[in-house]
Amino acid sequence: MTNSLPAIYAKNLGKRYGKRTVVENVSLDVPQGSFYAFLGPNGAGKSTVIRCLTGLTAPSEGTATVAGCDVSADPLTLKARIGIVSEDIALYEKLGAGEFLEWAGRMRGLTRRESARRAAELLSLLDLSADADRLIAEYSLGMKKKTALAFALLHAPAVLFLDEPFNGVDALSVRTLCAVLTELTRNRGVTVFFTSHVLETVERLADRAAVIQNGTIIAEGNLAELMQTANGTTLEETFATLIGATEKTAMDANSLDWF
Fold first, then answer.
1. What pTM was computed for the model?
2. 170: CATH
3. E-only strand ranges, 18-151
4. Which domain, by its residues, includes 62?
């Protein structure tokens, strides 16, 4: 589902820490209901852009609107309209997922009954019902990421930000996450903006993508356009070409002479 107004719009977004420029002139136009991948090598500025778009850090320059909210001028409304799953998962691990989500729902202003209903539905959707009473501390990484996604979805956000949602996650959990996220974008109109190094999964999910390197966006478009630009046959090949990576095809004859 798409709408004429973008879910995420950024114009010349920049972020500096002292004299060091981390992000510069980042502009984005992300349609509503889209699955948008934000790609780049480590240290390229992906997480900084997400922090600016979600109100966690103030941009040094430029403007951004997310879910109809100016990220700098209206942070409280913004918080109510977005969900965030960061790479560093922060959950209250001394509770079971069911109890944690019910508590979180009440903190979001839901009634006890509605909080319990939403928690149960999300746990079922994410295949966590059978483990709802186990302590989160005992969960695998995949289970923790699914719990974090449930937490981010409790208040029915319009835009969902995911920072490396598939990193270190087992194949079965990745499959569940992909199915749920696809349902949200295709049938619920939720916009998903995510970073990932698992390019095979990105290729399967994303409608569009932007590639950032050294704090600047170097390519943007649907996946077919990006591949055509870089003469790539896969997203992995396209990404490597765009960031100027070179494939090492053989071991240097003089290296590892002790092996």
1. 0.89
2. 3.40.50.300
3. 20-31, 35-39, 61-66, 69-70, 82-85
4. 6-88+159-242
